[in-house]
Amino acid sequence: MPKVADFETALTPTWCPGCGNHAMWRALKETLEELELPWTDFAMVWGIGCHGNGADFFRCQGFHSLHGRALPVATGIALSNPDLKVIVEMGDGDGYGIGGNHFIHSVRRNIDMTAIFHNNQIYGLTTGQASPTSDQFMKTPSTPGGVIEEPVNPVGVAVAQGATFVARGFAGDIPHLKELYKAAIQHEGFAVVDVFQPCVTWNKMNTFKWFRDRVYKLEELEGYDVTDRTMAFETSMKTFHELTCAPDECKVPIGIFYREEGAATYQDDLPQLKAPLYKLAEKPRDISKTLESYGG
Amino acid sequence: MATQKTVSATGNAVVADAMRQCKPDVMAAYPITPQTTIVEEFAGFVAKGRVHTEYVTVESEHSAMSACVGASAAGARVMTATSSQGLALMWEELHVASGMRLPIVMANANRALSAPINIHCDHGDAMGARDAGWVMLFAETAQEAYDNTIMATRIAENPAVLLPVMSCLDGFITTHSIDRVDVLDDESVAEFVGEYAPQNALLDIDQPVTHGAFAGLGGPFFEFKRAQRDAMERSREVISSVGAEYSELSGRPFGAVESWGMEDADVAIVVIGSTAGNVRHVARQLRAEGVKAGIVKVRVFRPFPYAELAAALSGVKAVAVLDRAESFGAEGGPLFLEVRSALYDAETRVPVAGYIYGLGGSDVRLELIERVYSDLSDIAAGTAQPGGFVYLGAR
Question: Among A68, A137, A153, B276, which residue has the least CB neighbours within 10 Å?
């Protein structure tokens, strides 16, 4: 079984010192080691963005796809080999903006895979423009007058669209993030893990400190029921509107918002996946006798 | 001539400045390296009130071009900028823009297409869109990128043309290098481009129209396409006259094809974009050594200036075409195919050698250009034949 060091390549990550991606990388490597997943049993897909450079640093079966198109590529992989655990990494621009339609439809399908979103609320790779999750009124080089739109609320969207696993993590808390990753990878169905991953270079607003002053864990919240979709939705909406407020005025929940066990996955509803092509292809069959019966 | 000031600026900065001077009503765009700073710069002009443009940050390039199409159909002067994957994602909308005859002006920072991922210069993005019905201009320098942007506005909006124009500049080499640029005063540019008088605008509520309605099953689709072809053909004359007028205003020459040393050249290189500078440098050195070297730079790719190109190359003994893009499975790169076709009617058959170079920002060193001229001298002397599919400098 691969250990943490086995997941590393000859290349050193090019992420900025202090970037939340380092923590997410480490959390995922440790998760994979602890889950004792053999190399052959999982595949990873990346979109385009700072996170996507991870394709160079992560030694595994991987595919570096196009901006916004990680989920369709992952869907193809998951359906051609349904025995694989498929883990998809995307950014906020990648997964909630340009590829937002794939996000909604993957949730709707409940396709069995894990979708991790590196949510730094900024376009890091193109040097600091507003992203779909940038806070309203945030000033960036592409929005010098401030962002006009409300940000995407990924947790709320996923919960409302019927997602069977929705969690939010924080790159400043690796042990907690690992627990979310483990639960998500083991979940049967589409698992959404939105991760606040501060961009230390371009997002001077949503910093590590900003989050440390605000995050609290849902599992420590008295009376929180992860099987109550309405409660999950209300919680997501509340925090969504309070992101720009002072630390004493609001808190940002992290943890598992919603989980539904036993829901049918997209794979469950495809009977042909019970005998997938890749398995049949391993056993070429001699059909000459059959052909003979047709005179051929 | 207009008042001009000399600035040191990147290609992207002066393209943004030219766009500001053209006063678009709407700009919709999405960040992509190496285009991003054009739109950032422009966003700054909007925020400071230096231009009154509806500036829309959208969620993808597909949305950017869709918004441009909508705004242009409504009667607005519309501009945007993109690069590489962004241009590829716009592909279906590119055809809608030209099919609806919407004079959108778009800067394209030439960058390689995935896969594998690469952010550096080649012309694969623009060449992939060469049949999308857009007028296509290419710049060698930041100066040309600036000038082309202003001319593009006039060409696109000319009532005899009404086609979108793509103004290309080389990613990083031209977009991000600081260059010396002469910039016109705002008033002269405003006067040169004039006010846009849209035809069949959606916002003309007294004359309601529908754009893009179904034209199949015996409908006029075929005739629409011929009308587009006619408009593209008419654009040749418009490009030429706009170029002449702009030359008078700016004091800088403009030609769909620009030649150096072609008066008596034995060997010539045809090239697009920033590499023209490298080629001219080598040609100048070879001239000093007695080699009659020439260069033909193609500044307008669509409509392709086949007559001007054939005229420029008449009398040479061997021609090399440098393509910074592939057309896998074809006899050569896109420019090679055009050049050879343009020479088909020439009275003397000239050998044409094709070279693929600089894909994904692969370095274009002077010795590579020297090698091409050396090959050409051998071909001209009859001691060698053009070799097929040469990847110049590939390891």
Answer: A137
